[in-house]
Amino acid sequence: MPSFSLTINGKNVTVTADADTPLLWVLRDELDMVGTKYGCGIGQCGACTVHVDGAATRSCLLQIATLDGKEVTTIEGLSEDGSHPLQQAWKELDVPQCGYCQAGQIMTAASFLKENPTPTDKEIREAMHGNLCRCASYNRIEKAVAAAAGKSN
Amino acid sequence: METQNTPFTFSRRNFLKTSALASGGMLIGFNLFTACKSEVQPPVDIANLNFNDFNAFIKIADNGMVTIFSPNPEIGQGVKTSMPMIIAEELDVPWEHVHVAQGILDNKNYQRQVAGGSQSIRFGWDALRQTGATARQMLVNAAAAKWGVDASTCSASDGIITNANGETLGYGDVVKEAAALEVPEDVTLKDPKDYKIIGTDAVNVDIDKIITGEPLFGLDYKAEGMKYAVVLRPPAFGKKLVSYDDTATRAVNGVVDVVRFGDKVAVLANNTWAAMKGKKALTAEWEVDSDLESTEEHDKILTEILDGNKFDERRNDGNVKAAFAAADKVIERTYESPFLPHNCMEPMNFYADVKADKIHLVGPIQTPSGTARRVAEKLGRSEDEVLLEMTRMGGGFGRRLYGDFVMEAAEISNLAGQPVKVVYTREDDMGAGIYRPAIKYRIAASIKDGKLTGYHLKEAAINRNMYGLIPHFFPAGCIENYRVDTANYQSNITIGAWRAPYTNFLAFAEQSFFDELARELEQDPVQLRIDLLQNVKGTTDENIQYSGDRMEGVIKLAAEKANWGNAPEGVYQGFAAYYSHNTHVAEVAEVEMDSYGKPVVKRVVVAADCGIVVNPTGAKNQIEGGVIDGIGHAMYSDFGFAEGAPTATNFDRYQLIRMNDTPKVETYFVENELSPTGLGEPGLPPAGGAVANAIAAATGQRLTQQPFVKYMGEAEVQEIKG
Fold first, then answer.
1. One domain, residues B158 and B240
2. Contact call for B77 and A97, based on CB within 8 A
3. What ipTM goes with this model?
């Protein structure tokens, strides 16, 4: 099996996996980083969202062979200790119900706020539209993104 | 404010037991099911309970810190937070000193725990309070003995016991002595006005793990030597496996084994991706075993049932036939809904390790005990050999009541002789579901001299019909001549409970019908409901468990908070009220027309009466989720069958509601001191009706079929708008 070198959460990692293995399964099964979730496998739900070179990307569709030399950030590496303004806002507003999709929601929001630190409500709703929450905690996700945006100002 | 005292039906001596821990501290065991009402039978002889029979525990450490092992499965409904809050309240410890752990489910030592029917809080209320209060009293008694004073002169608050002289001892200082004391027979429960924890916002106890991505869910569970199993199942209901060829599968890097069990083939691999690829590489031959059903066929059959006369009578008051014969006018409508998959965000999965002496099961399941029993039966093993541990669940919605995926994991592990985790792909999850069945309701009402005189509801469903007391829900008891009839068609498609079973669509049908009825009677829809409810007040009918007063309370509160009838220009309101799972809920949906002439739901105002609200932030979260879930499925979700196969198997062809389609939900609770009831389901049933009624107000179009987007006529909308 081929080997690939990439940076994950600031650490250099070499993984041995079939070239077509999606990053999602490398993270979960090979590297024991299970914060990134499987939801649909076709890029429709957003549960598997990570950052690749800073941009929010669906890891279920991303073959490991395309990531040689790239920088990946997962929910485990978004902050050292859960102190990212989004993580804190999620906690303050008690956003999750089942909690399964929330890592993907937070990763989408983190990338979005980096690009647009002072979004309007409409921009938040559009930016978060790609992430499904089956428990429908959407009202709170929206509020938490707005609250975190306020803090980063 | 209303109050209500719930009598206890159990002896405390039999449900509480304490012991000192070798490691220091005190362990208190209690049995949650002893507080269950008649619906649930205790599984063992209460008089002969031993310590192993307790299903929930509190541990109080020497330093006064408290660990509460929460007994019930957590599916996102919040009981892992709210149930321990109730114990902590009566124990009287600061919430910050409480650590909550998921109780490990062991079929030998633990008893019935189920997440379903929004009943965890309702059933747990008495036992949880009693347990906390008993532990507090024992700690007070121990402190009093240490001081040589009468316990009645001492008090406890925030983990500290104080005597008449002002001396204090912490709970941790007396746990050793307390554990050796007799369990008191009579303890005093707090007056709800003295609550310090109940009624305050407590954030989800797993929040830190959720926001940092720590392992928490079934899919995250790993064990030494575990293989991942992905299963090929029949592609259609009505087909069975003839043969398969696994040559290409076995050539996939990482695939370690392929096993057939019944009509299914499992591919075992060292990682999930290899197992998924291995499954795709399987070729199989299927044969038709029974009917290959289709949605068109179901549609026709359900209509034939409604047009026919073979029904089971479920409730019959007065004489509907005579009322209809004497009517000035009879109105009739038919309402239709499709099958729906549950689509939990975490697809079905389970870990099983079947060994000669032990069966170890780990994963997300709403019915751990019954599932463990069925696994033992299936494998011809003793229930005592099964150890089942529950993980947090990435959603349930009823799907995880069924342990089919646990049975699969156990069978595969048994055949392959390896520990395995069965993982469903989304396609497996949506395609091998246990669906909400398609249903049609036909409702007719008679009007005489401008009054509603009769009401006849017929249900045509697939495989089963409405259950329990549903035929006696609102508006039963409000209308003199009232009848509910049901019938079903036996299909080979598996169906089951889906969040608020039956009422998730029944409430839509009835609440839409009421809106039309009100217009027909030239009455305000809110006032019509209030007027009707006067007839049920004081009923002696034991089947009617909803309260006319409480229903009127939520109706008035929702109407007031939404400023019903005085919506601003361009805002169209729709009303619905329903009782389900012991909770009363009323909702006002507000719709506005967007620039394309399409109605958009902007806001829903909700009033709920669930008695005492244990954890307001969690309670509101349940209502917000239930309402948006209800709107989403009513509006978008379409699912059917062609040649026995599902018409959608992933989110590219199956629409769930997303953020930009989501209205703001405003939730208000009726304040009273009645025993709490659940909130996981009751917010959902009224949502579809409220929205349909608001859309009718905005566009003039009456939506009687779900999903709405399939039937909303743009031409009609624009015509009315112009």
1. no
2. yes
3. 0.98
In angstroms, the CA B278 to CA B257 distance is 10
| Range list for CATH 3.10.20.30 in chain A | 3-77
CATH code of residue B360: 3.30.365.10
The percent of residues in chain A predicted with pLDDT above 70, rounded, is 98
Does residue B307 have a pLDDT over 90? yes
| Cα separation of the two ends of chain A | 47
Contacts of B101 (CB under 8 A, 6+ apart): B67, B68, B69, B70
Residue B586 structure tokens: 């009323």
Alpha-carbon distance of B156 to B136, in angstroms, equals 7
Yes or no: say if B684 and B628 are a contact pair by the CB < 8 Å rule: no
**pLDDT at residue B254 greater than cutoff 50:** yes
Position B520 pLDDT exceeds 60: yes
Whether residues B547 and B413 share a domain: the answer is: no
User: Cis omega (within 30 of 0) on the bond before B707?
Assistant: yes
Q: Which of B333, B337, B682, B683 is nearest to B514 (CA)?
A: B333
Is the pLDDT score of B135 beyond 50? Answer: yes
Token pair for residue A42?
Answer: 């076709």
d(CA B604, CA B622): 14
Domain assignment of residue B258, yes or no: yes
Question: Identity (one letter) of the amino acid at B553?
Answer: G
* Number of domain units in chain B: 3
Q: How far apart are the first and last CA of chain B?
A: 49
Does the beta-carbon distance from A133 to B211 stay under 8 Å? Answer: no
**Fold annotation for A85-152:** DNA polymerase; domain 1 (1.10.150)
List B606's β-bridge partners, or say none. B587, B667
The pLDDT tens digits for B574-611 are 999 999 999 999 999 999 999 998 999 999 999 999 99
**B81, B200, B252, B345: best mutation site toward chain A, by most A Cβ within 10 Å?**
B345
Residues of B in contact with A91 (CB under 8 A): 203, 207-208, 211
Beta-sheet pairing, A3-8 with A11-16? antiparallel
User: Do the chains contact at A45 and B210, CB–CB below 8 Å?
Assistant: no
B614: containing domain: 522-721
pLDDT in the model for residue A68: 92
Amino acid at B78: G
In this predicted structure, the answer to whether residue B391 has a pLDDT above a threshold of 50 is: yes
A46 shares contact with chain B (CB less than 8 Å): no
Indicate whether B614 belongs to any domain: yes
Residue with tokens 């500290």: B160
Please name which of B261, B327, B498 lies closest in space to residue B400, comparing C-alpha atoms: B498
Q: What strands, in cross-sheet order, belong to the sheet with A3-8?
A: A11-16, A3-8, A71-73, A49-52, A55-58
Contact B440, B460 (CB under 8 A): yes
Top-level class of domain A3-77: alpha beta
Task: Round to whole Å and give the CA distance between B62 and B170.
Answer: 9
What tens digit of pLDDT does each residue of B539-564 get?
A: 999 999 999 999 999 999 999 999 99
Under 8 Å CB-to-CB from B650, ≥6 apart: which residues?
A: A40, A41, A42, A44, B426, B427, B430
| Statement: the pTM of the whole predicted model exceeds 0.80 | yes
Nearest CA in chain A to B213: A35
Q: Over 50: is that where the pLDDT of B12 sits?
A: no
Taking CA–CA distances from B391, the nearest residue in chain A reads A98
Pairs of residues, one from chain A and one from chain B, whose beta carbons lie less than 8 Å apart: 183
**A-chain residues within 8 Å CB-CB of B650?**
40-42, 44
Tokens of B206: 């797993």
Closest CA in chain B for residue A142: B659
Could you write out the DSSP letters of every residue in A39-60?
S-SSSSS-TTEEEETTEEEETT
